[in-house]
């Protein structure tokens, strides 16, 4: 009999790999261990054998075969399931990562590769001074979107976006806790110690003044427009299937970077994933507003979202105004540290209503009064066969969330010709201000799909009132809601930007203006117009925005982006249960839309407000959702992992629970409960 205390009775060999930079020390270390040794004891035993004097506090074991971290240091090897064949790597948890920001600039910083992506993004946003980190996530570019067009000029230089800003010396990047005075969820202003005006915490983190100024400028101020050549080389989606590729690479927020095959020095995209920009405030959100503006600008330029020619010219004019204002202020204090401009923009913000669903719901007295109604003569347009349209004037009455129309005003006391319930419908603007066309396209859910109805208004005021009422009704709200008047003002503001008049001097002498119009519009419009024509048209549109400040131009751009029919839609190619063909699923902040892949027409809309439950069958990768009135759907995702759609739905529901409590902390547990799933 051999005593249990004798060598070899319960011990076994475990080969450990140590990730260190000392060339004279072996990287593979064999240890004699027992199954009841806890992970922390294994770390201690390993460090003692290595005999290298350094800080090992950031090190942990990575189990390569199982792709998981052993972070519970009190667990024994037996409990973890570690056996002699396990390949454990003792490596740092924080590693260098390259992030391409929405403004196409690349930053290099240390990120936790062992934390869940949700927590890692939160830490990244602290480094970059971006509030509301729950709106962002990390995206891997899919192979399809990396393919660039063949270069016509072999000598053309690489895009300037490869310049890398190194932020690896910031406190959070070094794995240290950030100073709570630099970044806070509260609305306590961050002040520059020199000027006394609000300053970026990113700027405060850098000890070198010139570096701080440059870094802050890159993050909070828009850069010069890109060249048409650079734009032509970037991925531009042409179809809905192409747009679906853009959303295929979102990382799983409930797993770490290492678990998702992200390696040190890899490049990922940091993007706003959820299009609910909550509580935007120029005093505290200089970087956040600029990055939202940049994401919107590139989405317009690369045609990731469709817009009309008239709208494209507005976007071009707002970009031009931003850069004109920026040049005029180049010798003065920039907008990020200008107290008076912040106050001016704050006043503008109250009119712009930039945030989606951001209206203050506290006006209780307004909401409990009698629900107002609209009554007007409008034209009803019904598409008919053989491409003919029937246009007829009726007396329309808008009450609650429904529209009723009658033959004339006198017959309004009787039965209507038809009553349309707009709850859950799609509302699409059909406007051409120059042609005095003010149309509203309604796609109303019916048993076998969507019923199309077009309304034509006579003027801007009438259109704004009816359009705002339709938008609210689609969300189940009435005109008594406190957000109705701000919605009307937002629509009128957007129409006013479109309603430009020709400036004779600008039109006759466009060559006197230092502008490269090709930098402000998508390549499609560069091909459609000559440079002088494009300059003249942009200058026309510029007349209505020429007095805007730097930040206001960005906020107006964001507002105009939010007004586009396709705003906030993320596309995925799916196959619905029982269907023989593929469809496109559009995921938005408040609904899911089934879209015909061939025509791009909406087939059915389902609102999150009517959703009872959703789940995933992980074996067959199928998402199943139940709605009110015994409506249920199921689909498999073909263009991405079904977990991405599952997380999108749960994420939007999580974001809808936010409030303007300035001291709130993110309920990370609730987020993972809604988005994590059980695989």
Automatic annotation (TrEMBL):
<keyword id="KW-0130">Cell adhesion</keyword>
<dbReference type="InterPro" id="IPR035963">
    <property type="entry name" value="FERM_2"/>
</dbReference>
<dbReference type="GO" id="GO:0007229">
    <property type="term" value="P:integrin-mediated signaling pathway"/>
</dbReference>
<dbReference type="Pfam" id="PF18124">
    <property type="entry name" value="Kindlin_2_N"/>
</dbReference>
<keyword id="KW-0966">Cell projection</keyword>
<dbReference type="InterPro" id="IPR019748">
    <property type="entry name" value="FERM_central"/>
</dbReference>
<dbReference type="Pfam" id="PF00373">
    <property type="entry name" value="FERM_M"/>
</dbReference>
<keyword id="KW-0965">Cell junction</keyword>
<dbReference type="InterPro" id="IPR037837">
    <property type="entry name" value="PH_Kindlin/fermitin"/>
</dbReference>
<dbReference type="InterPro" id="IPR037843">
    <property type="entry name" value="Kindlin/fermitin"/>
</dbReference>
<dbReference type="InterPro" id="IPR019749">
    <property type="entry name" value="Band_41_domain"/>
</dbReference>
<protein>
    <submittedName>
        <fullName>FERM1 protein</fullName>
    </submittedName>
</protein>
<dbReference type="GO" id="GO:0007160">
    <property type="term" value="P:cell-matrix adhesion"/>
</dbReference>
<comment type="similarity">
    <text>Belongs to the kindlin family.</text>
</comment>
<dbReference type="InterPro" id="IPR040790">
    <property type="entry name" value="Kindlin_2_N"/>
</dbReference>
<dbReference type="GO" id="GO:0005925">
    <property type="term" value="C:focal adhesion"/>
</dbReference>
<dbReference type="InterPro" id="IPR001849">
    <property type="entry name" value="PH_domain"/>
</dbReference>
<dbReference type="InterPro" id="IPR011993">
    <property type="entry name" value="PH-like_dom_sf"/>
</dbReference>
<dbReference type="GO" id="GO:0042995">
    <property type="term" value="C:cell projection"/>
</dbReference>
<feature type="domain" description="PH">
    <location>
        <begin position="379"/>
        <end position="475"/>
    </location>
</feature>
<dbReference type="GO" id="GO:0005178">
    <property type="term" value="F:integrin binding"/>
</dbReference>
<dbReference type="InterPro" id="IPR019747">
    <property type="entry name" value="FERM_CS"/>
</dbReference>
